[in-house]
């Protein structure tokens, strides 16, 4: 039932341990491209709050969820490296280059990507991000001192880098900024609640939960009033400018996921669905003519819930062998 995508994403998001002290963190010695990334625990975040700037070395494959200054120094040629950054839903991420010593002419590179890429799939998708894909990459070797500070458009970002010469590397500082109207979000946790608001903006927003979940929508205001349409070829919210859809799949990119249900009328109450997919996305499409809002909560399906399927359940699509 567990897929390679789920293993990779869960390694990113739930590689949690009992971390104590500022400098004690999980070591991933010799980490390869598909090995676990580090996500610092909530306990460490609380310990770091209010203290001096946090410092530590950056690994070739890494995961950062706290503010601080991070330094990468190559001990040997490092040709396939990436660091993933994630904040809370209401946060944007700023990357400030403090020091860079790489050989751009010799094949080194250092690139920021506005979002995440995993196995060729992007979040946010090209349909949901305000910039074309080519502009989401910021290459230090091309921009240099022109772009030494880069801010993400959502709560996730990442860097790709290659350093051939031992001793070369770079230092950057991660800061987080408030985002009054979060749009595209990857949840750090398998349980939570969130309210998404799109105020008179023509845009699409996706909230991604990289777990099989029960999702309960408690309030939906679309500006035009109680229905949940299970997806069929001839039904749904086609032609409606403002709606919410639930998506499920095994990858990161919402545009490549399977549409499971539409909600295209406002309601106050409850619409609940059990989705047993590796990745569940709630996506709001907004015409810009209204103030649209959706409130929902979610929790990860346990094994009992996965094995005891009932009505209004979608896990058969994701796990056809069950």
UniProtKB/TrEMBL annotation:
Keywords: Disulfide bond, Glycoprotein, Kinase, Secreted, Signal, Transferase. GO terms for cellular component: extracellular space. Disulfide bonds join 60-81, 104-141, 183-205, 237-264, 277-318. Residues 185-307 form the Corticotropin-releasing factor binding protein C-terminal domain. GO terms for biological process: hormone-mediated signaling pathway; negative regulation of corticotropin secretion. Belongs to the CRF-binding protein family. This is Corticotropin-releasing factor-binding protein.
């Amino acid at each position: 039932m567990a897929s390679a995508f789920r293993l990779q994403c869960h390694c990113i998001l739930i590689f949690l341990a009992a971390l104590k002290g500022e400098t004690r963190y999980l070591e991933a010695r010799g980490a390869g491209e598909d090995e676990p990334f580090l996500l610092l625990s909530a306990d460490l975040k609380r310990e770091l709050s209010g203290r001096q700037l946090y410092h530590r070395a950056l690994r070739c494959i890494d995961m950062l969820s706290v503010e601080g200054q991070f330094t990468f120094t190559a001990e040997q040629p490092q040709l396939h490296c990436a660091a993933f950054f994630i904040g809370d839903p209401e946060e944007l991420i700023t990357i400030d280059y403090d020091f860079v010593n790489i050989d751009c002419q010799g094949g080194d590179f250092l690139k920021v990507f506005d979002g995440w890429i995993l196995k060729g799939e992007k979040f946010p998708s090209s349909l949901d991000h305000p910039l074309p894909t080519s502009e989401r990459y910021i290459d230090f070797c091309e921009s240099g001192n022109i772009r030494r500070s880069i801010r993400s458009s959502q709560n996730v970002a990442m860097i790709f880098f290659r350093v051939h010469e031992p001793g070369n590397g770079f230092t950057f500082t991660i800061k987080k900024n408030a985002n009054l109207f979060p749009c595209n979000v990857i949840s750090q946790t398998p349980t939570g609640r969130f309210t998404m608001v799109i105020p008179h903006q023509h845009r699409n927003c996706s909230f991604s939960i990289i777990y099989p979940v029960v999702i309960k929508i408690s309030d939906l205001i679309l500006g035009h009033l109680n229905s949940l349409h299970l997806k069929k070829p001839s039904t749904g919210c086609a032609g409606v400018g403002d709606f919410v859809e639930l998506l499920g799949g095994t990858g990161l990119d919402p545009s490549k996921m399977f549409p499971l249900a539409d909600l295209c009328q406002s309601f106050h109450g409850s619409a609940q669905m059990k989705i047993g997919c590796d990745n569940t996305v709630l996506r709001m499409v907004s015409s810009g003519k209204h103030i649209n809002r959706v409130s929902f909560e979610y929790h990860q399906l346990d094994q009992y819930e996965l094995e005891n399927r009932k009505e209004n359940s979608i896990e058969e699509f994701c796990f056809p062998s069950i």
